[in-house]
């Protein structure tokens, strides 16, 4: 029963966010800049980040209505990174549509991304009634972290030896940092004290870590129909995911040689996916990933215990649990 | 005598700025991100924007020492735009060195540019002791303006009809907006009231307009040795500069046809520069440009009359005069 109530509330928040996104660039000129910006934002998705921000404001005793602009700001931040990352990663498709640089061109995508960063700050400022310096600082540090994370991710593509420790550092910047921004700013908008903001940021960071490893796991265990993308893509692209690095750490003999070939050839062929999946399973790697996801999720939830129960904190709790049970 | 004193003081400020720039990215990791950031900033130049900011703080009754971080922030902002513009404009050379995307690669240049934006905010925040919301708002609006200006500039490249009015709107965003940011933030850091900030921003905007048209004029009238780049480059590239658009407005018959050919062919050959220069001169276009530069410079200086004389306001006055007499 509670689950349905939370899902309903998520849906209501999502609807409000979508309505605001629709109007975001109305009547803005030049069209050569704002049509691509609009395109970048209208691709849908879970809108996880703005919802996280809104729930954090609520959890810290604030009102949803005080945080909608900031919620849009983090969604714009997220989409700016997708726009520029797609260029860097040569990813022609994003959520079933041409990536921005394919729909328009690379120059347009660079400029639209830049403008989105500034637009995010512009919206964020509208919800800075107090704690402005801290809010802008957290947001700014988030962009720096994400850039550093992306830089490390690109570096890993061509490096032979990447440790799990380095991998965790990379995803803590590339993925978890933005979720930390969402929960931290959510708290600050509510005027929360240092301790509450710290708890919320800790939740965001751990959730982000769990979220990314879950992503890595789904790539190999998901049901292709529900998943929406090809299972095993990370292996095909030769990505150094949690599962791959863990398998490399544990595998011996021929198995290890086979894994090293993925690095050497920068990926595998589609018809090899099953044989690599078998190696992962032989060494219990999916179970390791699940344990790691559980560990981070528990850390996220543990911190929340210190916050009083309210719609915000209860939904953050529900959200952490549903994210680790997601199938896409 | 005064002139020499001001030049000396400019030199002193420049030296302090350079020293701070040198240390900016020391020990920052990953190197794959921060080496390009360092490269982007160490190319020298006049450092006009940080000096403008410092002088504005002084003019509004503040101290240089309260504004060095903000001064670096506007210089970083400027260099971020150069890094991304060079990709978009296919400009392989910047200040006599390979542009960042040539020295490294396009992906690195995109990411370094993104990181520079955030780094600029990070530094700016350090000097936000008061007026934070206004300072961040002006800075953010500056980035949006510059993106809009760049978008218009790219749009003009492929458009047949561009009016002088549209040109002025474009340069007011692409060039003048950032100088407006410098003078406005300089004033706000000093805690200046609305009227003083308005005067300073008005000065920055008019100076920026004069500065850009002077740039357009120098392209055709400069002495190649002092200028440092090829005279007539704008014509070769088919740029719709103030001079070109003014000539197009005034020319008749064969002259007009010849100018229209520049648009049709997206530029001219090196050996045609002299003949186009003759058309400009026949219709008095360089004089028109000079009048326009004078008009904007006078507007910039007139506003300053309302500020009390001090080192800052006197140097802003001197700066406006020396910029219109520059030869490079």
UniProtKB/TrEMBL annotation, chains A, B:
Keywords, alphabetical: Magnesium, Membrane, Metal-binding, Transferase, Transmembrane, Transmembrane helix
Membrane-crossing segments per the record: 175-194
SUPFAM superfamilies per the UniProt record, alphabetical: Terpenoid synthases (SSF48576)
CDD domains linked to this entry: Trans_IPPS_HT
InterPro entries to which the protein is assigned, alphabetical: Isoprenoid_synthase_dom_sf, Polyprenyl_synt, Polyprenyl_synt_CS
Domain of life: Bacteria
One GO biological process term: isoprenoid biosynthetic process
Cofactor(s) in the UniProt record: Mg(2+)
Molecular function via GO: metal ion binding; prenyltransferase activity
Residues in the signal sequence: none
Entry's family note: Belongs to the FPP/GGPP synthase family.
Protein name from the UniProt record: Geranylgeranyl pyrophosphate synthase
Source organism phylogeny: Bacteria, Pseudomonadati, Ignavibacteriota, Ignavibacteria, Ignavibacteriales
